[in-house]
């Protein structure tokens, strides 16, 4: 028997509680909205971030949509198929409120332990439920718990969906307070995606402050591009308006691709930590195609890599990741194997 990661267990219990309780408990609550926030259309958008809400629709989806509308926010809803089937009108309300709809599996299982055909039928069934309820064909997929592998990614891809994890975890599923959720969201940078959830009161209560922080940094909520997995303008255009340099400034160096073999910059962030493993997100700047060398500390071991092609040296501790057309950010999951403190180090970033 393998051990169950503690946080995963807590989270799955929480989800089950949400699935069964929220519909009845929250439906009875009245919601008062103070429509004092500035709509995002009035803001100067120098970049976009992807706000995502998982595990809905729930009995409190309409409360969430009210808060989002009051703040002029469009977001991406990663819906659970079974919940769509049970809350068809809530799924329709998401689309009517201008939200984008993604696939978050049929019933939030741990999908990496499924066979390829089980994955296929789980995701297909979810897409059918979403399409039947809303007319929308999802082109984004988020694996439950952020747990993925190459088989799951290729199944999603074969169904026309790009896998999207997240750059920032709001920790709302983990009991984070409103101020903690706001603080986590304040780490969002242009192009990045944050994980939040439908059905959590603190999350709804945090949205006004999250928007105030984003607005102060000239960041606006956008859609997640199905081709890059990054946040772009709501109409799908990229780069966003407002990035034209003011007169007298020189164009940013990124407009001239460096020659192959030149250097680039790779910045690593720990995006999520569980009892037995953690996720790292690495964003490359200064090169469209790149090779990043990452050193790990034994006995830690990488268990999966996304948005890049990885190979290892003979020690198994040095990983080389090459761009594979999935954009400038790749990620990987590392198993602690007894060492929960070490974090990967970027050795080099090379263009081409
Ligand atoms: Zn989820």
Automatic annotation (TrEMBL):
Residues 47-222 form the NodB homology domain. Residues 257-352 form the CBM2 domain. Gene3D superfamilies: 2.60.40.290, Glycoside hydrolase/deacetylase. InterPro entries: CBD2, CBM2/CBM3_carb-bd_dom_sf, CBM2_carb-bd_dom_sf, Glyco_hydro/deAcase_b/a-brl, NODB_dom, Polysacc_deacetylase_ArnD. The keyword Mitochondrion does not apply. GO terms for cellular component: membrane. It comes from the Bacteria. Pfam families: Polysacc_deac_1. Residues 221-263 are annotated as: Disordered. Residues 237-260 have a biased composition (Pro residues). One of its GO terms (molecular function) is polysaccharide binding. One of its GO terms (biological process) is carbohydrate metabolic process. Residues 1-34 form the signal peptide. SMART domains: CBD_II. Keywords: Hydrolase, Metal-binding, Signal. The keyword Acetylation does not apply. This is Polysaccharide deacetylase family protein.
């Amino acid at each position: 028997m393998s051990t169950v990661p503690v946080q995963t267990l807590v989270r799955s219990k929480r989800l089950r509680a949400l699935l069964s309780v929220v519909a009845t408990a929250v439906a009875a609550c009245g919601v008062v909205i103070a429509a004092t926030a500035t709509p995002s259309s009035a803001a100067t958008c120098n970049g976009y971030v992807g706000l995502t809400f998982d595990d809905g629709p729930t009995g409190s989806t309409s409360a969430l949509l009210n808060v989002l509308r009051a703040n002029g926010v469009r977001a991406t809803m990663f819906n659970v198929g079974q919940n769509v089937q049970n809350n068809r009108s809530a799924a329709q309300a998401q689309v009517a409120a201008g939200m984008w709809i993604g696939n978050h599996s049929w019933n939030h299982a741990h999908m990496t332990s499924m066979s390829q055909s089980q994955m296929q039928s789980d995701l297909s069934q979810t897409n059918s439920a979403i399409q039947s309820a809303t007319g929308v064909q999802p082109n984004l997929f988020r694996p439950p718990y952020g747990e993925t592998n190459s088989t799951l990614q290729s199944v999603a891809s074969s169904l026309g969906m790009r896998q999207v994890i997240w750059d920032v975890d709001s920790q709302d599923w983990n009991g984070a307070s409103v101020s903690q959720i706001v603080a986590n969201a304040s780490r969002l940078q242009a192009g990045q995606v944050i994980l939040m959830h439908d059905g959590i009161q603190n999350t709804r209560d945090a949205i006004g402050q999250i928007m105030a922080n984003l607005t102060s940094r000239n960041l606006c909520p956008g859609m997640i591009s199905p081709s890059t997995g990054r946040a772009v303008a709501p109409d799908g255009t990229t780069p966003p308006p407002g990035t034209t340099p003011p007169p007298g400034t020189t164009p940013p160096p990124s407009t001239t691709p460096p020659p192959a073999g030149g250097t680039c910059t790779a910045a690593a962030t720990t995006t999520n930590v569980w009892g037995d493993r953690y996720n790292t997100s690495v964003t490359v700047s200064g090169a469209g195609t790149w090779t990043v060398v990452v050193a790990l500390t034994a006995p830690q071991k990488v268990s999966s890599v996304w948005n890049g092609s990885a190979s290892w040296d003979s020690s198994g501790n040095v990983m080389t990741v090459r761009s594979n057309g999935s954009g400038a950010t790749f990620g990987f999951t590392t198993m602690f194997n007894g060492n929960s403190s070490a974090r990967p180090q970027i050795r080099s970033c090379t263009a081409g």
